[in-house]
Amino acid sequence: MIEFRNVSKSFWTGTQRKVILDQASFRINLGGSVGILAPNGTGKTTLINMMSGLEKPDEGEILRSSRISFPLGYMGGVLPKLNAVENSRYIARLYGLDPDYIESFCRYICGLEEYFEMPIATYSKGMRARFMMALLLALEFDIYLIDEGMPSSTDAEFNRKAGSVLRERLQKATVVIVSHQTDILEKFCQSAAVLRNGRLTMYDSLEEAKQVYNYAQ
Ligand SMILES: Nc1ncnc2c1ncn2[C@@H]1O[C@H](COP(=O)(O)OP(=O)(O)OP(=O)(O)O)[C@@H](O)[C@H]1O
């Protein structure tokens, strides 16, 4: 469970205060995957970072009582000068998991071939995104935090494999996806919220949230 209680967050830009959340209270329960729709630049990354604990609220409380993932795309634990073998084994040890299993899982999902033995620093943006998604899926969490949907990969094989592992994980786990688009949410979320002008409104169904979001665009 992740619960926001009267959470406010804003940034001072030098000329104005950019409000991301204004006294928001909501709860994400285990078992119901949620999408959060918000236009670009309105606070999706800040919100997901607050859920994971990477960003602190200015006011209010954020309560967590489950195993919550790092946000997809967060490169904090990954060392660019090491290759994917070394990085996946290092992360496995950090989480107390079997390095052989985590390495083989990532190798299978990513399809990076010989680049799996090359430093992460040599990867394209898409290859990096594939490795980070594989790593996220290799670790077992109760809530997976995904910023802007699946990595933009043109690799159909990767999308198929990652999508099917995520669906399998979601039989037990919950996903929170923040996005400015509705299509990725349709694949994985039952309900959704709309974030606009610092206000986050939860809707019971994705359909309802989509209508409100599209109407206000
Ligand atoms: N540390 C900061 N200091 C000042 N402004 C910030 C800071 N972090 C984010 N912002 C601003 O807050 C707003 C929301 O940023 P955020 O990255 O959360 O939005 P986003 O919806 O994820 O954006 P995008 O859709 O472009 O990825 C943006 O205007 C951004 O410039």
Automatic annotation (TrEMBL):
Keywords: ATP-binding, Nucleotide-binding. GO terms for molecular function: ATP binding; ATP hydrolysis activity. It holds the Pfam family ABC_tran. The gene is kpsT. It comes from the Bacteria. InterPro entries: AAA+_ATPase (IPR003593), ABC_transporter-like_ATP-bd (IPR003439), ABC_transporter-like_CS (IPR017871), Bact_Polysacc_Export_ATP-bd (IPR050683), P-loop_NTPase (IPR027417). SMART domains: AAA. PANTHER family: TEICHOIC ACIDS EXPORT ATP-BINDING PROTEIN TAGH. Transmembrane segments: none annotated. The lineage of its organism: Bacteria, Pseudomonadati, Pseudomonadota, Alphaproteobacteria, Rhodobacterales. This is ABC transporter. Residues 2-216 form the ABC transporter domain.
